[in-house]
Every structure is written in structure tokens, then in C-alpha cells.
Design a protein that fits this description.
- Helices cover about 40% and strands about 15% of the residues.
- The protein is built from 8 helices and 6 strands, in the order αβααβαβαβααββα.
- Helix 3 runs parallel beside helix 4.
- The chain is globular.
- The two termini are about 30 Å apart.
């Protein structure tokens, strides 16, 4: 689904878009694949890292919008396992950018009551970046106004494999029987344990795929694909995505609601 279903909305002000939202029917959890940082920079004749740096502003705006509207969970795909295949100099720059983000945002997260979580094979991060991830996790663990989850060295398939390995070890240790295993039981072993499944997935830059992101959790998630590059995805784009979400009928396998009794 793209934002083409909101034809005409580009003429509305941000205040008018906000007024159209049903604040009682907002998603509990938004997941975002932040795509297009490099292309944003290349279109402007800038180095790719300039796009990633600009994209951090969009992270701040998305977080602020969720906080403003009372959306309690935001998960962003920051660095996939496949991203380790990028040139070494770019990976080093991205890790430094992650550290600076965490250093600069820690006080703001605490002040706003935002818990920070990292998911993925986080232990594979460089020592300094990992230290800051754990520090921010620890200092915000008690906060409950909102949860910002950042996927780092993350892959949806590897998350399921890791969960099954832990589950198999517990079975082998006699802590449970295989007959006890069902979907809710397996979910306890996922890195997103404790979070509701995303209601809305947003992907920027015009790509229409999920790229190994939250494969288990996205089973019934509404998808929103927009051509907007991530550094340009700000408050207004977020409002458009939420309006599109609210125009959908979420049936979870049930038949459509009849128009008349």
C-alpha cells in the first residue's frame, strides 16, 4: 500500500491532517524500515554519511510524533546483518554515528520517559558502540512512557533461529516438554518479547519489501510504502501514514464487517 490512497491530502495543512486522525484508533506499535539515506545524499552531491546523519533528524521527529500522540512503541531498523557487507569505512562511520546518537539522546530519552531497547545480535557490534547501547538500555530500563526499539545487527530469520536454539536448550535441560510449545510460548524467546506485534510497518524510498525485518511479528501488520526518502520523512509524512492506516479494515482473517445488520 502506498500513500497514493491519500490523494488530495497534500493540500491539507499539518493541523488539518492531525484533526482528521482518530486518536482512539492509533496503532500501539509502529515499525519503520528507514531506507533512502544514501540516495538522499547522492541526489545532493553529498557523501553517503550526510544522508545517514540527516536521517537521525527523522528518527527524532518520528519519536516525537509517537510521544505526542501516545503511541507507546516505535521500532526502527537501523542496521541489518546484511549491512556488515558494506565497505569497512562506511560501517565504521555508521558505528560512530550510532555512538554519537546515543550520547546525544540519552538525557532527552530520560527526560521524556522513553525506554531504549536494542534487538538483534547486538554483541557483534564494536566494543565502544556496544558499551553505549548497554549504557542507554540500562539507564532507561525503568522508563515506561514509550519504548524506542532499535534493530542492530538484526535479521528476522536469525532472530527465529536464536529463539529456537534457546528453546531447544531449555527442552534438553528438562525445563519444558515440546508438547508445551505453541505460538505464544515461542514468542517469549524472541528479542521483541514483551512488545505487541507492530500494527503498522512503514518503509520509505519506494521499495516494497520487508528485507528480513520482524518476520514473525509482521504476520498481520498493515504495510505502508512511500517513495519519500527517509531523511525527508518528517512529521507530515508520519501523519499521512497514520491516516492511511486508519482507512484500513483490519480483519485478522475474519470476514469483512457487513454494512448493514
Amino acid at each position: 500500500m502506498t500513500n497514493s490512497s491519500l490523494a488530495g491530502a497534500e493540500h491539507l495543512t499539518d493541523a488539518e491532517l492531525l484533526a482528521q486522525l482518530d486518536l482512539e484508533s492509533l496503532p500501539r506499535h509502529i515499525a519503520i524500515i528507514m531506507d533512502g539515506n544514501g540516495r538522499w545524499a547522492e541526489l545532493r552531491g553529498l557523501p553517503r554519511m550526510a544522508g545517514h546523519a540527516e536521517g537521525i533528524k527523522s528518527v527524532r521527529e518520528a519519536t516525537a510524533l509517537c510521544l505526542e500522540l501516545g503511541i507507546p512503541n516505535l521500532t526502527i531498523y537501523a542496521f541489518s546483518q546484511e549491512n556488515w557487507k558494506r565497505p569497512a569505512h562506511e560501517i565504521t562511520a555508521l558505528m560512530l554515528l550510532l555512538e554519537r546518537f546515543l550520547q546525544s539522546e540519552l538525557d532527552e530519552l530520560v527526560e521524556r520517559g522513553i525506554r531504549f531497547r536494542a534487538i538483534g545480535r547486538v554483541d557483534s557490534l564494536p566494543t565502544s558502540a556496544l558499551k553505549w547501547v548497554r549504557k542507554v538500555e540500562g539507564e532507561t530500563a525503568h522508563l515506561d512512557k514509550m519504548t524506542l526499539t532499535v534493530a542492530l545487527s538484526y535479521g528476522g530469520r536469525s532472530e527465529i533461529v536464536d529463539a529456537v536454539r534457546r528453546l531447544a536448550k531449555d527442552c534438553q535441560a528438562g525445563q519444558m516438554s515440546p508438547d508445551q510449545i505453541d505460538e505464544p510460548f515461542l514468542e517469549r524467546y524472541l528479542s521483541t518479547q514483551g512488545l505487541p506485534d507492530p500494527d503498522l510497518l512503514i518503509r520509505t524510498s519506494g521499495e516494497a519489501r520487508i528485507s528480513n525485518f520482524l518476520l514473525w511479528q509482521l504476520a498481520y501488520t498493515e504495510m505502508y510504502f512511500t517513495p519519500t526518502l527517509w531523511p525527508d520523512f518528517r512529521r507530515r509524512e508520519g501523519l499521512l501514514a497514520l491516516l492511511d492506516f486508519q482507512r484500513r479494515e483490519r480483519r485478522f482473517g475474519r470476514l469483512p464487517t457487513p454494512a448493514f445488520p
